[in-house]
Amino acid sequence: MTKKILITSALPYIDWPKHLGNLVGSMLPADVYARFNRMIGNTVCFICATDEHGTPAELAATAAGMGVAEYCRVKHRMQSECYRKFMLSFDHFGRSSSENNIQLTQYLHGRLDENDFIEKRTTRQVYSVTDRRFLPDRYIIGDCPFCGYSAARGDQCENCTRLLNPTKLINPASSISGTRTLEVRESTHLFLKQSDLMPRIREWIDNNRKWPNLVRSIANSWLNEGLEDRCITRDLKWGVPVNRRGFEDKVFYVWFDAPIAYIAETKSWSDQDPAHRDWRSWWYDASDVTYVQFMAKDNIPFHTVSFPCTLLGSGEPWKLPDYIKGFNWLTYNGGKFSTSQKRGVFLDRAIELFPADYWRYWLMFNAPESQDADFTFRSFAGTINKDLADILGNFINRTFTFALKHFGSEIPRGGEFSCIERELAKDLDRMVCRYRDYLERMKFRKAISELRSIWMSGNGYLARTEPWLVIKKDRKRTAAIIRTAINLSYLFATLSYPVIPAICDRVIKAVNLRTEPVHWPQGGVLGALRCLNPGHPITIPLPIKKISAVEVNKLESEFDGSDSRRASVN
Fold this sequence. Notes:
Elements: E1 4-9, H1 20-39, E2 43-50, H2 55-63, H3 68-85, E3 92-95, H4 99-114, E4 118-128, E5 133-134, E6 140-143, E7 152-153, E8 170-174, E9 182-192, H5 194-206, H6 213-225, E10 230-231, E11 233-234, E12 251-252, H7 254-272, H8 280-283, E13 289-296, H9 300-313, E14 323-327, E15 330-332, E16 335-336, H10 347-353, H11 356-365, E17 373-375, H12 377-407, H13 419-440, H14 444-465, H15 467-470, H16 475-496, H17 501-510, H18 524-528, H19 549-558
Parallel strand pairs: 1-2, 1-13, 2-3, 13-14, 15-17
Antiparallel strand pairs: 4-5, 4-9, 6-7, 6-8, 9-10, 11-12, 15-16
Helix pairs in contact: 2-3, 4-7, 5-9, 6-9, 7-9, 11-12, 12-14, 12-16, 13-14, 14-16, 16-17
């Protein structure tokens, strides 16, 4: 039965470039899941956008000598182009600064206000005398009052993930200028009364017991500490204007408007494509939709508490997530990736170095699901060389090279299946079933491990049947073996499509079939081994190249964390 699957990945902030951790923490696994669901016949809406508001964008635009709106437009284009190179199959990749998001954010604020979940309060905020501005929470750094982490931001501690009040930081300083000449001044703001919505949030989370332990533990830790009301406005110029008298000089807090962009940019998608005019069917009273969110663990609190508070408090039947897939950190050589310090591998440079499929495969094979994962170029090269080149690539290359040498440019005729092929089909049926089950349950590391085992069965089949020896005495039997191996190659490519779509396309083109759309194999493996008939034209697909030890040494030197060795990001 066809299902409607709504997929959103956490919005990447507008600053550029992003590192590998940003990719594997939300967008890439969301893409794998989206591709898989399209393959099995589900109707998919996969939405993402650049998160463009807030002080970081203002400061970065000033440093670049650009207006903030133009800066965001340029950086959005750069992100879009790079994600396309990584073959991320968004149905729409929009912008949180869109007119649709401005209107919907203001609308939901109005609904919350009507339902008495908005309150005006005079607050005491940190003001930097040196910078001549109120400091947004994230631009105040100091020691975390809970865990002692020395680089905690005023909005959230990256170490213990707790939400923070910047006035509670120990030894606070401005991260803009480094000054400690800070004052606490009064300013009037709007608060979302999360405390009043806490019972409904707890009930909702308690009813979702199949969420990953990482997600539930972070959400429950917030609830157990007691939800505090959340300030949803800021003393800034760049952002969604507050549609309320007396607040003309303020904008909504970026973490209030950014998640709303999931909904708003679904509308933008429908506005641009006449075939998708039903955007409300995905979000409003959408009981037939399964909604899955993907994000790194630092985003979990906002998606399990703050955004649901907005939707529940509206009093309208907006779609809440059915499943939240959270990820731990990807580290680089034992330390954190750092955008500010340019430490690690960034996407603009990564796609210049190696094909997208290399990165996609390694990242999903090592997805930080249950714990942090560490990237090194030696691990990267080892996995690509062994799995993609030696296991998958070697099988495909041996098969097609042998076929063209001995039978020409068509799938060979003659011979029948033996018990060997039937046993292989039974074994593969079980493996494919497990692989599909892991993908459906978003157990990505297990899925990729199972996919690798499926590939290995191909080399095992050739080793068992020995066509290079059989050809000397039984051409018909050899034809059946090679025909089976070619169909195995096509099967492997099809199954690999969610993870390594470019390599899949190579194989599909080599057997002269359309590359889109790719469908999940029907009728079991035995049927798949008869999919391509004798006489069907074939060519040799491009090989999967290995990464040399020399390349690894060079890359380790280039990406040692030194800014001077970092390629230009502009």
